[in-house]
Amino acid sequence: MREPVKTGLFAAAALALAVVAALVEPESATPGIMSDQGEAFYPGFTDPQAPRSIEVIDYDEATATARPFKVQFQRGRWLISTHHNYPVDAGERMAKASAALIDLKKDLVRSDSPADHAQFGVVDPLDQKVTGLAGRGKRVTLRGAKGEVLADYVFGKPVEGKPGQRYVRVPGGKRTYAVKTEADPSARFGDWVDPGLLRIAASSIRRVTINNYSIDETLGRLSNVETLVLTQEKDQWKLAGAEKFNLAPVKALTAALDGLKPVDARPKPAEMAEDLRKGQMRLSIETAMALRQNGFFLVQGGRLLAKEGEVQVETADGLVYSLRFGEVATSGTEGKPASAGGENRYLFATAGFDAARAAKYGGDAAAGQRRADELNRRFADWFYVLSGADFQKLRLRRKDL
Fold first, then answer.
1. What pTM was estimated for this model as a whole?
2. Cα gap 267→290, rounded to integer Å
3. What is the pLDDT of residues 227-246, one digit of tens each?
4. Is 281 helix (H, G, I), strand (E, B) or coil?
Protein backbone atom coordinates (compact mmCIF):
# COMPACT_ATOMS: atom_id res chain seq x y z
CA MET A 1 0.00 0.00 0.00
CA ARG A 2 1.34 3.36 -0.94
CA GLU A 3 2.48 5.65 1.95
CA PRO A 4 0.01 8.55 1.28
CA VAL A 5 -2.91 6.15 1.17
CA LYS A 6 -1.77 4.49 4.40
CA THR A 7 -1.44 7.86 6.14
CA GLY A 8 -4.92 8.86 5.03
CA LEU A 9 -6.43 5.66 6.45
CA PHE A 10 -4.72 6.24 9.84
CA ALA A 11 -6.04 9.81 9.94
CA ALA A 12 -9.57 8.64 9.16
CA ALA A 13 -9.36 6.01 11.88
CA ALA A 14 -8.13 8.57 14.42
CA LEU A 15 -11.00 10.91 13.54
CA ALA A 16 -13.51 8.10 13.94
CA LEU A 17 -12.11 7.22 17.38
CA ALA A 18 -12.32 10.86 18.43
CA VAL A 19 -15.99 11.02 17.41
CA VAL A 20 -16.76 7.80 19.32
CA ALA A 21 -14.97 9.14 22.41
CA ALA A 22 -16.99 12.33 22.27
CA LEU A 23 -20.22 10.34 22.09
CA VAL A 24 -19.28 8.02 24.96
CA GLU A 25 -17.89 10.83 27.21
CA PRO A 26 -19.50 14.05 25.95
CA GLU A 27 -18.26 16.09 28.98
CA SER A 28 -14.67 15.63 27.87
CA ALA A 29 -15.54 17.18 24.51
CA THR A 30 -16.30 20.55 26.22
CA PRO A 31 -13.47 20.97 28.73
CA GLY A 32 -13.60 24.80 28.71
CA ILE A 33 -16.81 25.38 30.68
CA MET A 34 -16.06 22.60 33.20
CA SER A 35 -12.36 23.35 33.59
CA ASP A 36 -12.46 24.81 37.12
CA GLN A 37 -15.57 23.18 38.56
CA GLY A 38 -14.97 22.01 42.14
CA GLU A 39 -11.97 24.26 42.70
CA ALA A 40 -11.70 26.84 45.51
CA PHE A 41 -12.39 30.43 44.47
CA TYR A 42 -9.40 31.76 46.42
CA PRO A 43 -7.06 28.90 47.42
CA GLY A 44 -4.56 31.36 48.94
CA PHE A 45 -7.13 32.69 51.43
CA THR A 46 -6.80 30.27 54.36
CA ASP A 47 -6.64 32.41 57.51
CA PRO A 48 -10.00 33.77 58.80
CA GLN A 49 -8.07 36.30 60.92
CA ALA A 50 -6.26 37.76 57.88
CA PRO A 51 -8.97 40.22 56.70
CA ARG A 52 -8.59 43.79 57.91
CA SER A 53 -11.59 45.15 56.05
CA ILE A 54 -14.84 43.96 54.53
CA GLU A 55 -16.75 46.02 52.00
CA VAL A 56 -20.31 45.14 51.07
CA ILE A 57 -22.00 46.89 48.15
CA ASP A 58 -25.74 46.26 48.06
CA TYR A 59 -28.06 47.55 45.35
CA ASP A 60 -31.47 49.12 45.86
CA GLU A 61 -33.49 48.68 42.68
CA ALA A 62 -36.23 51.02 43.94
CA THR A 63 -33.84 53.97 44.07
CA ALA A 64 -31.32 52.64 41.51
CA THR A 65 -28.46 53.26 43.91
CA ALA A 66 -25.58 51.15 45.18
CA ARG A 67 -25.23 51.24 48.99
CA PRO A 68 -21.62 50.90 50.15
CA PHE A 69 -20.82 49.62 53.62
CA LYS A 70 -17.31 49.10 54.97
CA VAL A 71 -15.92 47.84 58.27
CA GLN A 72 -12.20 48.38 58.77
CA PHE A 73 -9.59 47.67 61.45
CA GLN A 74 -7.97 50.99 62.32
CA ARG A 75 -6.10 52.33 65.33
CA GLY A 76 -6.47 49.03 67.13
CA ARG A 77 -10.27 48.70 66.78
CA TRP A 78 -12.99 47.88 64.28
CA LEU A 79 -14.75 50.92 62.82
CA ILE A 80 -17.59 51.36 60.33
CA SER A 81 -15.68 53.66 58.01
CA THR A 82 -18.70 54.40 55.82
CA HIS A 83 -20.55 55.68 58.89
CA HIS A 84 -18.24 58.27 60.40
CA ASN A 85 -15.93 55.60 61.90
CA TYR A 86 -18.57 54.42 64.35
CA PRO A 87 -16.82 51.92 66.66
CA VAL A 88 -18.20 48.41 66.82
CA ASP A 89 -17.18 45.21 68.52
CA ALA A 90 -16.96 43.55 65.12
CA GLY A 91 -14.02 41.22 65.69
CA GLU A 92 -16.22 38.16 66.20
CA ARG A 93 -18.48 39.14 63.32
CA MET A 94 -15.51 39.62 61.03
CA ALA A 95 -14.14 36.20 61.96
CA LYS A 96 -17.53 34.62 61.24
CA ALA A 97 -17.92 36.49 57.96
CA SER A 98 -14.44 35.56 56.74
CA ALA A 99 -14.84 31.94 57.90
CA ALA A 100 -18.06 31.70 55.88
CA LEU A 101 -16.28 33.06 52.78
CA ILE A 102 -12.97 31.24 53.15
CA ASP A 103 -13.88 27.78 51.84
CA LEU A 104 -16.20 28.67 48.97
CA LYS A 105 -15.85 26.31 46.03
CA LYS A 106 -17.03 26.51 42.45
CA ASP A 107 -19.50 23.70 43.01
CA LEU A 108 -21.34 23.78 39.68
CA VAL A 109 -20.81 25.87 36.56
CA ARG A 110 -24.17 27.24 35.43
CA SER A 111 -23.26 29.59 32.61
CA ASP A 112 -20.33 31.04 30.71
CA SER A 113 -22.35 33.85 29.16
CA PRO A 114 -22.54 37.47 30.39
CA ALA A 115 -26.05 37.54 28.92
CA ASP A 116 -27.16 35.31 31.83
CA HIS A 117 -25.79 37.52 34.63
CA ALA A 118 -29.05 39.42 35.15
CA GLN A 119 -31.06 36.18 35.18
CA PHE A 120 -28.89 34.81 37.99
CA GLY A 121 -28.70 38.17 39.82
CA VAL A 122 -24.91 38.42 39.59
CA VAL A 123 -24.53 41.75 37.77
CA ASP A 124 -21.86 43.75 39.60
CA PRO A 125 -23.64 46.60 41.47
CA LEU A 126 -20.68 48.85 40.61
CA ASP A 127 -20.69 48.05 36.88
CA GLN A 128 -21.47 51.28 35.01
CA LYS A 129 -21.40 49.59 31.62
CA VAL A 130 -24.56 47.60 32.32
CA THR A 131 -27.55 49.86 31.73
CA GLY A 132 -30.27 47.63 33.22
CA LEU A 133 -31.33 48.03 36.83
CA ALA A 134 -32.55 44.47 37.40
CA GLY A 135 -30.35 41.53 38.29
CA ARG A 136 -27.67 43.36 40.25
CA GLY A 137 -26.19 41.35 43.08
CA LYS A 138 -24.30 42.03 46.29
CA ARG A 139 -20.56 42.52 45.99
CA VAL A 140 -18.42 41.44 48.94
CA THR A 141 -14.69 42.19 49.11
CA LEU A 142 -12.26 41.16 51.83
CA ARG A 143 -8.84 42.84 52.03
CA GLY A 144 -5.74 42.14 54.07
CA ALA A 145 -3.46 44.38 56.12
CA LYS A 146 -1.77 45.87 53.04
CA GLY A 147 -5.00 46.42 51.14
CA GLU A 148 -4.56 43.29 49.04
CA VAL A 149 -7.71 41.48 47.88
CA LEU A 150 -8.18 38.20 49.75
CA ALA A 151 -11.57 37.40 48.25
CA ASP A 152 -14.03 39.20 45.98
CA TYR A 153 -17.49 37.93 45.02
CA VAL A 154 -20.79 38.99 43.52
CA PHE A 155 -23.57 37.09 45.32
CA GLY A 156 -26.73 36.59 43.30
CA LYS A 157 -30.10 34.92 43.68
CA PRO A 158 -30.77 31.68 45.59
CA VAL A 159 -30.63 28.60 43.36
CA GLU A 160 -34.15 27.43 42.53
CA GLY A 161 -35.10 24.26 44.42
CA LYS A 162 -31.69 24.05 46.13
CA PRO A 163 -31.87 25.40 49.70
CA GLY A 164 -28.51 26.69 50.93
CA GLN A 165 -27.19 27.39 47.43
CA ARG A 166 -26.91 30.63 45.52
CA TYR A 167 -25.42 31.96 42.33
CA VAL A 168 -21.96 33.48 42.62
CA ARG A 169 -19.60 35.19 40.19
CA VAL A 170 -16.10 36.65 40.49
CA PRO A 171 -16.18 40.36 39.48
CA GLY A 172 -14.80 40.76 35.97
CA GLY A 173 -15.42 37.10 35.12
CA LYS A 174 -18.02 35.75 32.71
CA ARG A 175 -18.73 32.48 34.46
CA THR A 176 -21.60 32.01 36.95
CA TYR A 177 -21.52 29.19 39.50
CA ALA A 178 -24.05 27.55 41.79
CA VAL A 179 -22.37 27.52 45.20
CA LYS A 180 -23.31 25.90 48.48
CA THR A 181 -23.06 28.68 51.05
CA GLU A 182 -24.98 30.38 53.85
CA ALA A 183 -22.74 33.47 53.64
CA ASP A 184 -24.68 36.70 53.25
CA PRO A 185 -22.75 39.65 54.75
CA SER A 186 -25.06 42.56 55.47
CA ALA A 187 -24.73 46.16 54.29
CA ARG A 188 -26.98 47.43 57.09
CA PHE A 189 -25.55 49.36 60.05
CA GLY A 190 -27.95 47.71 62.49
CA ASP A 191 -26.73 44.22 61.61
CA TRP A 192 -23.16 45.05 62.68
CA VAL A 193 -23.74 46.82 66.00
CA ASP A 194 -24.55 44.97 69.18
CA PRO A 195 -28.05 45.10 70.61
CA GLY A 196 -28.20 46.64 74.06
CA LEU A 197 -27.04 50.19 73.35
CA LEU A 198 -28.10 51.27 76.84
CA ARG A 199 -26.50 48.33 78.69
CA ILE A 200 -29.67 48.00 80.70
CA ALA A 201 -31.44 44.85 81.91
CA ALA A 202 -35.25 44.93 81.89
CA SER A 203 -35.27 43.32 85.37
CA SER A 204 -33.27 46.26 86.82
CA ILE A 205 -35.80 48.94 85.75
CA ARG A 206 -37.70 50.45 88.67
CA ARG A 207 -39.40 53.53 87.21
CA VAL A 208 -40.20 54.89 83.75
CA THR A 209 -41.44 58.45 83.28
CA ILE A 210 -42.76 59.21 79.80
CA ASN A 211 -42.98 62.93 79.06
CA ASN A 212 -45.00 63.12 75.89
CA TYR A 213 -45.04 66.41 74.06
CA SER A 214 -44.35 67.87 70.65
CA ILE A 215 -42.63 71.18 69.93
CA ASP A 216 -44.53 73.57 67.71
CA GLU A 217 -41.59 75.54 66.29
CA THR A 218 -43.87 78.04 64.54
CA LEU A 219 -45.68 79.09 67.73
CA GLY A 220 -42.76 78.33 70.05
CA ARG A 221 -44.71 76.16 72.47
CA LEU A 222 -45.29 72.57 73.57
CA SER A 223 -48.35 70.65 72.42
CA ASN A 224 -49.93 67.24 73.11
CA VAL A 225 -48.45 67.31 76.61
CA GLU A 226 -48.98 64.16 78.69
CA THR A 227 -47.00 62.45 81.46
CA LEU A 228 -47.12 58.75 82.34
CA VAL A 229 -45.35 57.22 85.34
CA LEU A 230 -44.77 53.46 85.47
CA THR A 231 -43.20 51.79 88.52
CA GLN A 232 -42.07 48.22 89.08
CA GLU A 233 -42.14 46.65 92.53
CA LYS A 234 -41.61 42.95 93.19
CA ASP A 235 -41.98 42.21 89.46
CA GLN A 236 -45.34 43.99 89.36
CA TRP A 237 -45.91 47.07 87.19
CA LYS A 238 -48.15 49.94 88.23
CA LEU A 239 -49.40 52.93 86.24
CA ALA A 240 -49.97 56.08 88.27
CA GLY A 241 -53.66 57.02 88.25
CA ALA A 242 -54.92 53.68 86.93
CA GLU A 243 -56.01 50.54 88.73
CA LYS A 244 -56.08 48.46 85.55
CA PHE A 245 -54.10 48.83 82.35
CA ASN A 246 -52.78 46.85 79.41
CA LEU A 247 -49.46 45.29 80.44
CA ALA A 248 -48.36 44.17 76.94
CA PRO A 249 -47.10 47.62 75.79
CA VAL A 250 -45.13 47.96 79.05
CA LYS A 251 -43.39 44.64 78.43
CA ALA A 252 -42.67 45.73 74.87
CA LEU A 253 -41.19 49.00 76.19
CA THR A 254 -38.86 47.27 78.71
CA ALA A 255 -37.79 44.72 76.09
CA ALA A 256 -37.00 47.55 73.69
CA LEU A 257 -34.90 49.29 76.37
CA ASP A 258 -33.06 46.04 77.11
CA GLY A 259 -32.18 45.28 73.48
CA LEU A 260 -32.11 48.77 71.96
CA LYS A 261 -30.12 48.79 68.73
CA PRO A 262 -29.60 51.92 66.58
CA VAL A 263 -30.05 51.68 62.82
CA ASP A 264 -27.55 54.49 62.25
CA ALA A 265 -25.48 57.11 64.09
CA ARG A 266 -24.27 60.63 63.28
CA PRO A 267 -21.36 62.38 65.02
CA LYS A 268 -21.95 65.32 67.32
CA PRO A 269 -19.71 68.38 66.95
CA ALA A 270 -16.38 67.84 68.75
CA GLU A 271 -17.00 70.72 71.16
CA MET A 272 -20.40 69.37 72.17
CA ALA A 273 -19.02 65.86 72.64
CA GLU A 274 -16.19 67.14 74.83
CA ASP A 275 -18.64 69.12 76.97
CA LEU A 276 -20.91 66.10 77.42
CA ARG A 277 -18.00 63.96 78.57
CA LYS A 278 -17.49 66.59 81.31
CA GLY A 279 -21.18 66.56 82.22
CA GLN A 280 -22.04 69.98 80.77
CA MET A 281 -23.10 71.63 77.52
CA ARG A 282 -22.33 75.20 76.47
CA LEU A 283 -24.59 76.82 73.91
CA SER A 284 -22.20 77.77 71.12
CA ILE A 285 -23.47 78.51 67.61
CA GLU A 286 -22.17 75.15 66.34
CA THR A 287 -23.84 73.27 69.19
CA ALA A 288 -27.15 75.11 68.76
CA MET A 289 -27.19 74.43 65.01
CA ALA A 290 -26.40 70.72 65.42
CA LEU A 291 -29.08 70.34 68.09
CA ARG A 292 -31.75 72.14 66.09
CA GLN A 293 -30.92 70.28 62.88
CA ASN A 294 -31.60 66.99 64.65
CA GLY A 295 -34.69 68.16 66.54
CA PHE A 296 -33.31 69.22 69.95
CA PHE A 297 -33.45 72.61 71.68
CA LEU A 298 -31.43 73.95 74.62
CA VAL A 299 -33.69 76.46 76.37
CA GLN A 300 -33.31 78.97 79.18
CA GLY A 301 -32.19 77.36 82.40
CA GLY A 302 -30.17 74.73 80.54
CA ARG A 303 -33.03 72.31 79.90
CA LEU A 304 -32.77 70.26 76.71
CA LEU A 305 -36.10 69.75 74.96
CA ALA A 306 -36.77 67.30 72.14
CA LYS A 307 -39.16 67.61 69.22
CA GLU A 308 -41.08 64.45 70.11
CA GLY A 309 -40.77 64.17 73.88
CA GLU A 310 -38.55 62.20 76.21
CA VAL A 311 -38.39 59.18 78.50
CA GLN A 312 -36.59 58.86 81.82
CA VAL A 313 -35.64 55.40 83.04
CA GLU A 314 -34.48 54.69 86.62
CA THR A 315 -32.69 51.47 87.55
CA ALA A 316 -32.01 49.66 90.80
CA ASP A 317 -28.44 50.94 91.10
CA GLY A 318 -29.48 54.61 90.88
CA LEU A 319 -28.88 55.21 87.16
CA VAL A 320 -31.19 57.67 85.45
CA TYR A 321 -31.30 57.48 81.66
CA SER A 322 -32.70 60.39 79.67
CA LEU A 323 -33.80 59.45 76.16
CA ARG A 324 -34.92 62.37 73.98
CA PHE A 325 -36.57 61.86 70.60
CA GLY A 326 -35.77 64.38 67.89
CA GLU A 327 -36.42 64.96 64.22
CA VAL A 328 -37.19 62.34 61.56
CA ALA A 329 -33.96 60.82 60.24
CA THR A 330 -34.32 61.23 56.49
CA SER A 331 -31.35 59.22 55.26
CA GLY A 332 -28.76 56.73 56.36
CA THR A 333 -27.74 53.14 56.18
CA GLU A 334 -31.17 51.76 55.62
CA GLY A 335 -31.64 53.94 52.56
CA LYS A 336 -35.14 54.94 53.66
CA PRO A 337 -36.54 57.49 56.12
CA ALA A 338 -38.96 55.00 57.64
CA SER A 339 -39.02 51.39 58.72
CA ALA A 340 -42.00 49.04 58.92
CA GLY A 341 -42.96 50.57 62.28
CA GLY A 342 -42.91 54.20 61.15
CA GLU A 343 -40.42 57.02 60.76
CA ASN A 344 -36.89 56.62 62.11
CA ARG A 345 -35.96 59.23 64.73
CA TYR A 346 -32.84 60.82 66.15
CA LEU A 347 -32.10 59.89 69.75
CA PHE A 348 -30.11 62.02 72.23
CA ALA A 349 -29.12 59.78 75.15
CA THR A 350 -27.54 60.76 78.46
CA ALA A 351 -27.10 59.00 81.80
CA GLY A 352 -26.99 60.33 85.34
CA PHE A 353 -26.63 58.92 88.82
CA ASP A 354 -28.75 59.57 91.91
CA ALA A 355 -27.41 58.23 95.21
CA ALA A 356 -30.80 58.71 96.90
CA ARG A 357 -32.49 56.51 94.31
CA ALA A 358 -29.77 53.87 94.68
CA ALA A 359 -30.38 53.86 98.46
CA LYS A 360 -34.15 53.70 97.94
CA TYR A 361 -33.93 50.76 95.55
CA GLY A 362 -31.18 49.00 97.51
CA GLY A 363 -28.70 49.04 94.60
CA ASP A 364 -24.93 49.30 94.46
CA ALA A 365 -24.24 53.05 94.46
CA ALA A 366 -20.55 52.76 93.56
CA ALA A 367 -21.34 50.54 90.58
CA GLY A 368 -24.10 52.92 89.51
CA GLN A 369 -21.78 55.93 89.44
CA ARG A 370 -19.14 54.02 87.44
CA ARG A 371 -21.71 52.89 84.90
CA ALA A 372 -23.16 56.39 84.51
CA ASP A 373 -19.69 57.78 83.74
CA GLU A 374 -19.00 54.94 81.32
CA LEU A 375 -22.29 55.42 79.50
CA ASN A 376 -21.87 59.17 79.13
CA ARG A 377 -18.46 58.66 77.56
CA ARG A 378 -20.08 56.31 75.03
CA PHE A 379 -23.12 58.50 74.36
CA ALA A 380 -21.19 61.78 74.13
CA ASP A 381 -20.05 61.44 70.52
CA TRP A 382 -23.25 60.38 68.77
CA PHE A 383 -26.76 61.27 67.72
CA TYR A 384 -28.26 57.80 67.36
CA VAL A 385 -31.00 56.90 64.90
CA LEU A 386 -33.80 54.68 66.24
CA SER A 387 -36.03 52.58 64.06
CA GLY A 388 -39.63 53.73 63.81
CA ALA A 389 -40.73 50.51 65.50
CA ASP A 390 -38.55 51.12 68.59
CA PHE A 391 -39.62 54.76 68.75
CA GLN A 392 -43.27 53.70 68.89
CA LYS A 393 -42.56 51.17 71.66
CA LEU A 394 -40.72 53.71 73.82
CA ARG A 395 -43.06 56.66 73.37
CA LEU A 396 -46.23 55.19 74.86
CA ARG A 397 -49.37 57.26 75.39
CA ARG A 398 -52.13 56.67 77.90
CA LYS A 399 -54.46 55.47 75.16
CA ASP A 400 -51.98 52.67 74.39
CA LEU A 401 -52.35 51.43 77.96
1. 0.84
2. 10
3. 999 999 888 999 999 989 99
4. coil
